[in-house]
Specification:
23% helix, 7(1) septoil knot domain-containing protein, 1 helix, Septknot, signal, six-stranded parallel barrel, alpha/beta
Length: 111
């Protein structure tokens, strides 16, 4: 009886992890450089609630490499942080992100 409960718990945890891992890949459109229709370049605003995308910063195995720029964020992965009129609103999270990013100083875009 106890092992059945443990097996169920492990199965549920495994399904949650698999669902979260596959979430990023199903929403990404590499040709359009977007996630669920939101552009992954341009003016970005960091918010505490109601984001377009939840983002986790990682040092390895990112979904997208992001370069912070001061002007003309026209290429995939180039973000200019703004306080108003963003193209994309993000929220930083530690777990269950929609997208994992790595901050870089050159060569932004897909890994």
């Amino acid at each position: 009886m106890r092992q059945t409960k443990k097996l169920r718990a492990l199965t549920i945890v495994g399904l949650i992890c698999f669902t979260q891992a596959s979430r990023a890949s199903e929403g990404l459109d590499k040709q359009a450089c977007s996630f669920d229709g939101f552009p992954l370049f341009g003016d970005v605003q960091v918010v505490d609630s109601f984001p377009d995308i939840r983002v986790q910063i990682v040092t390895s195995f990112p979904d997208l490499k992001v370069e912070t720029v001061e002007s003309f964020p026209d290429d995939c992965g180039q973000w200019r942080f703004v306080d108003s009129f963003p193209d994309l609103k993000i929220q930083y999270v530690e777990s269950f992100p929609d997208l994992k990013i790595q901050l870089v100083t050159s060569f932004p875009g897909w890994p």
